């Protein structure tokens, strides 16, 4: 059982029942707030908040943690440059590279910030259907006095992007199987062999995604799609309830705690 990034998990939970507009505002705000955490108390508060809501979502914690693999290369990049290129008290030295205590502290802070943002983004995608999220974006932009054309366009782009994620994931698996059938080996040691393997997958995937996007654009033009006057079979109304209020209160409390701390 695997839940890739961007895949909605259709189960019953208190988090799933919260209005998607409230989740969109609060979880994106908490993801941004993660980058402002400084002290251990800030990180403890943010991560306890995440694990509490992840538990209430009824999605196993391991699936949230598994999505951190998507940014592990960025995390390693941050750790390497912070440890060896931050001046301070020397811990050890490897050739011309000098590791410092200040660099290690900065690396831990930056990685925890990155992971916090990814976890809250994953919480949003696991508990909110893509179509309802797109409708939420449209509704919020219209409430902020954006024109209908801009609001509908942003909602449409987001909806199509979210729908393309599982499609491209399946296509990538098929490309890997096809390359293996041709004798390609994907478990090679060394940077350059792994880079060649990555190129062998990503280039066909990019070509395929462009082709699918072009086919979708042609199909929409043939049907006379007009994003400014689009209608929907399902109308999402803002259903404010006690759960939405508690989530927003929790978001405000988080901002006050991190900023004042």
UniProtKB/TrEMBL annotation:
Record keywords: Cell membrane, Membrane, Transmembrane, Transmembrane helix
How would you describe this protein's topology in the membrane? Multi-pass membrane protein
Q: Which GO terms describe its cellular component?
A: plasma membrane
Q: Which CDD domains does the entry link to?
A: EcfT
Signal peptide limits: none
Question: Matching InterPro entries, A to Z?
Answer: ABC/ECF_trnsptr_transmembrane (IPR003339), ECF_transporter_component (IPR051611)
Compartments where located: Membrane
Q: Name one Pfam family in it.
A: CbiQ
| Listed transmembrane segments | 71-95, 107-129, 240-260
Name the chain's protein. Cobalt transport protein
